[in-house]
Amino acid sequence: MAPVSLDTINPKVLKCEYAVRGEIVTLAQAVQEELKSKPGSRPFDEILYCNIGNPQSLGQQPITFFREVLALCDHPSILDKSETRGLFSSDAIERARQILDQIPGRATGAYSHSQGIKGLRDAIAAGIEARDGFPADPNDIFLTDGASPAVHMMMQLLIRSEKDGILCPIPQYPLYSASIALHGGTLVPYYLDEATGWGLEVSELKKQWADAKSKGITPRALVVINPGNPTGQVLAENNQKEIVDFCKKEGLVLLADEVYQENVYVPEKKFHSFKKVARSMGYGEKDISVVSFQSVSKGYYGECGKRGGYMEVTGFGPEIREQIYKLASVNLCSNISGQILASLVMSPPKDGDESYESYSAEKDGILSSLKRRAKTLEDAFNKLEGVTCNKAEGAMYLFPCIRLPEKAIKAAEAAKTTPDNFYCRGLLNATGIVFVPGSGFGQVLGTWHFRCTILPQEDKIPAVVSRLTEFHKSFMEEFRE
Amino acid sequence: MAPVSLDTINPKVLKCEYAVRGEIVTLAQAVQEELKSKPGSRPFDEILYCNIGNPQSLGQQPITFFREVLALCDHPSILDKSETRGLFSSDAIERARQILDQIPGRATGAYSHSQGIKGLRDAIAAGIEARDGFPADPNDIFLTDGASPAVHMMMQLLIRSEKDGILCPIPQYPLYSASIALHGGTLVPYYLDEATGWGLEVSELKKQWADAKSKGITPRALVVINPGNPTGQVLAENNQKEIVDFCKKEGLVLLADEVYQENVYVPEKKFHSFKKVARSMGYGEKDISVVSFQSVSKGYYGECGKRGGYMEVTGFGPEIREQIYKLASVNLCSNISGQILASLVMSPPKDGDESYESYSAEKDGILSSLKRRAKTLEDAFNKLEGVTCNKAEGAMYLFPCIRLPEKAIKAAEAAKTTPDNFYCRGLLNATGIVFVPGSGFGQVLGTWHFRCTILPQEDKIPAVVSRLTEFHKSFMEEFRE
């Protein structure tokens, strides 16, 4: 008798899904193994992972200054050696010293305060203040191993049962649906309007909120992802104000996923944090609960493997803060390198620092290249038969809509899968390109999409476009009515 | 209307407790602030944190080789520079190169496979094989941010409701009670026998198992912490065999907390992993489910801040393995520096490597000092009136029993706290020494204990002993009948 079977595990685990690393990716890994053992067995020689926002896996280089500081903090005993001056920039050496001075006993190998090292939280709070023009309190910062554990913590805090609802955009980043499922709550969907560039209409929020209430669900929080994942839109400030008012009026915690705050590619849009918007409306601590998530994995830094991030928690009473602290303390603390990196991305080199020029060049190079790649891919999608793609205003993704022929939909049915999955499987098998089917994010019933990152390096983009275009043509030929 | 209050949060969060960073530690932080703002306001000038297994916070130095490799992996562009040879040992440079070669694209800033980088898992599996003399499969390894998230994952997998029970030692490390509470299960306590050096009797397991069953609880798993936390005992191999047989017979998953595997201080005891014991009995994959937790935070490495660790998952079918993989994938991956460090602690320098001698000297220095400190503290406790302390065979803690006078118990009652908490508060206020009250770990009703780490540096141990002894004397004087 096996002690554990699918019938006896936690059904919430069974229910949870995470498409970004789901079926198509497992298939891609198998094809990659096949390519290794049988080179030439496919019409392509490498897998192009466009499934996940993982810039450095596709060749993006880390920011040199950040890595210098991390290396010095990892091995502080070289700080005073003469060779070190030849290997590291002087401001990186200086910054590493400053950081080490803020760590009790300079012990980067010790558990820190459960919210993270105080001096690093000071730097982050100062960075938020500089960004927003409103005060930030280091005691509101909880450093976490990337943004995901922070999201889980808030879901764990808020969800009591399936009667508690979390309003989530559809399409959404599936961390949210996964976390809500794992914590046994109900995802209350609100639909982004594809026709208006993935617009977030407050009328839709109100409608879905009322609908949930009528079903006996208590909406507890509203998730907003801005810039959008997988949808790439950037919210207008006025729209954000309406959202803030809605949350305030209905007593919803505003869970603001702001991990793409540096990824805005169009001049007419600008990132505004939800806390700043709320403060600019005159709402303070007592008026609204806002949690802002930030991560070192995105932006121009793209340091996914470092697992750094934080949440800024505002508008909760001290007794609730204590409960959040307790949850953080059960896991002791987040990793110190990630903590250091989170402080660095919120306080990068300044004009006049030795590294400033190279830092700026690296940063601008990455962001302007991402912008070009986004545009090239967007244009390419819009040239495909039956495909329409909204503007990539921000984030790292495109989420084009594809109108599939009836014959393809039937073929998918026969293959016991969804049409978008069927398309993505075909694409992978024919080209090695990995997209995530729209089903993994949610989409209006009867519409089909896929998510594609804008992360392949620029010299690979032409190949992506031509392979995709060729596949798409032959797919449409095959299944045309 | 505040959207969130203690009445409306998840009651499982409210229920969860984690004493290792609980009330006494919060009080200690307040006293530390007081010392900073008003030096001389107390009869001591520093807080001695003996509450938590956090070696480097108390001055333990990291192993140089490990930090060299981490720094080089953080900033690989210095690998080829001539100055680097002057700063780093040649085998650290070589090892960093090997590790980077195992990372796709040498990208230490990319998300890895959700179980961790394959090459690092290979090294860990080889280390387990070398330790145990039985095969280990890299596909059984799940790298995690320290051992805590691994424990949470298993609890999340196994616990469906409060009808599911997890057998835990009492006293236990409160991560277990916290995780069980957060996941809504029932902790089924089995008591370690203080009279026999915290012996783990299978008769007690059977009794508590039957008792749980009679209450309608389904026991799902047995937690064993070996070497013991907070109790410091090391299990005898024969005892482990009985435990394995019990789990096999009753269909329990054996959750083996083996994070102190390097911390054994007595010649008559040796660490044996539960998987090795099970294999030595002829039990394979199909016979018993064993999960072994390991961490970079303990041992002689003590790298708590790096948040590295792994679990080795054996004896589960592929369909369950897939569910565990899914849980891992929702958080994408553990931090890469922690992954690298986990591979290093399982494959340290070997005889003949340039760093071997210094590595061995550092390792032996730390372990032999820990052994001396354990003995000194154990002897000191046993000299205190009304205090008895078992031998510290392993781990990093002592858990002495203290018989408190009736008058002290009444005074605690008047102060609305438990007697052990009352004692620890008094100790902190009088001496700056931070112990954790036994209530945080569980203890036989009517007995009182505290947990003390053996981690203060050796030059501080005499002060700990004399301050403690003095406080204890005056405490007993004050409350003697």
Please explain how this structure is put together:
- The structure is a homodimer of 481-residue chains.
- Chain A contains 17 helices and 14 strands.
- By secondary structure, chain A is an alpha/beta fold.
- Chain A has 2 domains: 11-59 and 361-479, Alpha-Beta Complex (Aspartate Aminotransferase, domain 1); 111-345, Type I PLP-dependent aspartate aminotransferase-like (Major domain) (Aspartate Aminotransferase, domain 2), CATH 3.40.640.10.
- Chain A has a 7-stranded mixed sheet, with helices on both faces. A 3-stranded antiparallel sheet of chain A has the order 10-14-13. Chain A has a two-stranded parallel sheet with strand order 1-12.
- In chain A, helix 3 packs across helix 5, helix 7 runs parallel beside helix 8 (175-182) and helix 16 (419-431) crosses helix 17 (461-479).
- Chain A is globular and about 70 Å long.
- Chain A starts with 10 loop residues before the first helix and ends with a helix.
- At the A-B interface, helix 1, helix 3, helix 4, helix 7 and helix 8 of A face helix 1, helix 3, helix 4, helix 7 and helix 8 of B.
Output mean pLDDT of chain A.
95
* CATH architecture descriptor name of the largest domain in chain A: 3-Layer(aba) Sandwich
Can you tell me the overall shape of chain A?
globular
- Kindly report how far apart the N and C termini of chain A lie: 53 Å
Tell me what portion of residues of chain A adopts beta-strand conformation: 5-15%
Quaternary structure: homodimer
CATH C-level of the largest domain in chain A: Alpha Beta
Q: Which runs of chain A of at least 5 residues are low in confidence (pLDDT < 50)?
A: none
Strand neighbour order, sheet with most strands of chain A: 2-8-7-6-5-3-4
What percent of residues of chain A adopt helix (DSSP H or I)?
Answer: 40-55%
CATH homologous superfamily identity of the largest domain in chain A: Type I PLP-dependent aspartate aminotransferase-like (Major domain)
> Biggest protein-protein interface?
A-B, 95 and 95 residues
